[in-house]
Design a protein that fits this description.
By secondary structure, the chain is mostly helical. It has one helix and no strands.
Length: 53
């Protein structure tokens, strides 16, 4: 039997490395945003719940 070519697009090693680095950068940015929102919430304290009527 002849070998079949894989379906779809096959990425090169450079493209795989680039995709991984991009994914890590997005994850780090998301983590920083989560920490920032958490820190702001802690700094504001209970005042977060005080809304004007």
């Amino acid at each position: 039997m002849a070998e079949q070519e894989p379906d779809g697009i096959v990425l090169t090693e450079a493209q795989k490395r680039s995709r991984r680095q991009r994914s890590i950068a997005i994850a780090l940015a998301l983590g920083v945003l989560v920490v920032l929102f958490f820190a702001v919430t802690l700094v504001k304290g209970p005042a977060v719940l005080n809304r004007p009527l």
